[in-house]
Predict the 3D structure of the following.
Amino acid sequence: MGVRVERDGPACLVILDWPERKNALGPQDADAISQALQQATLAPDVHGVVLTGEGAFCAGVNLKDTLERAAMSPEERRQMVYRSFQGLMRTLIAVPVPTIAAIDGPAVGSGFDLALACDSRFIGPAGWCMQGWGRLGFVPGTGGELLMRRLAPNALWSLLEAQPRIGADLAEKLGLGEASGEMSARQRAVTRVAALAKSLSRQALEAYVELYRSELRTQLEPHLEAAREHQVHLQVAAGLRKRVESVLGKAT
Amino acid sequence: MGLRVERHDRAAVLVFDWPERRNAIGPEEALEITATLKDIVKDPAVCGVVITGEGAFCAGGNLKGAVFKQDTSTEERSAAVYGAVHGMMQAIVNVPLPTVAAIDGPAIALGFDMALACDSRFIGPKGWCLQGWGKLGFVPGAAGEMLLRFRSPGVLWRLLEEQPRINAELAEKLNLGESSGESTARERAIARVNALAPMSRETLEAYVDLNRADLRSKMEHGLAAAAAKQLALLTRPGLEDRVKAALNK
């Protein structure tokens, strides 16, 4: 349990495996995933990183932790968001080879943001995404607004209005991801890395990544800073505990 | 008649109602819209702004000033023609709350640009958009090219080639707007604002701030560049007759 790193041909898989909480993340978990992502590309024959979960993809930030942190000062909160949760996004976007999210279960809130930060997203028969943040009265603290806008400029307001479960079909319609058909998203993602590795060297793939993500990399930090300020402000504002408890109540 | 504001629960609805000119907007109307937009969001209960028209959404801009004031300097003409309309476009983009265009009739040229400046666009059974500027040999003078590119990066050249009437179905296909189904766009837009309202005004303002930061940082330059290009085209000999012909239609 925890985060696992596995090889499958030219693909390196980073697998979230905290089944008891559907891969909802606390700050230490985010740090552990960051480390795993950094290790994943050390071997020179790795041509792509597949980010996935055992069961759930990632149910977001662990809300029970959030309640325990209710007394945190705004400055401590800002530091934690910056270092752990936003740190994970920075690491993911800095991975030098193509990144693929393989979604075979729920990807909610920060989990959705993690998927949006990958270069591709496959959604399997049991996979779905949800923006989630808006239901708590929050903005995405991990870059989700920017990341989604880059992929689907007009999707935000309809997702906030209805908070739909985004299965493979809806993801394709909105331009947010690709269906993996009948196979699991994980298998499909490994297939993509293998196909890329057939015709492109690691050096060539790194060049594509650098071109593809250079604009995102320059936009990321100012956006994360703005998101962090809004998020801390909204969390400190009255009603955090009530909102989180009401969502936890619905979930159980 | 004129400009009307309605409240529907948490939605403020700005209704253009100049039927005799199909809601075509000149400098005076633009100033009125700007002032009203700034005013309606002062009520803390308002959680979103719907922009719509009675009948037509907006049949375009009023270009008379640009064509017929040939004796004034470029700067003077630019300020007279574009000042008020650019102020209105900025006012739309600077509304601190979600903005929804509800299109239940034609939205042409400047009308299309105004709809593109909103966060969402609903198109009703009777609504349609037309880029329009290209038909007259012009570029949009109020950043319509940039706004179109923000909403749907690949669509410009197809619209210029075909100048199609963009109804609900085509708008969805081109990623330019959402169909309101069988209800009017206005009803659908009001429903969206009221569905967003429980998120709280503060949260909605934060989303708007994040979502529009990039657009806002590019508006001033986009407006100035568009006006310079359009003015250069407008003052070329020969185009005057074309504009007159278009205005008389």
About this structure: Chain A is about 50% helix and 15% strand. The longest strand of chain A covers residues 2-8.
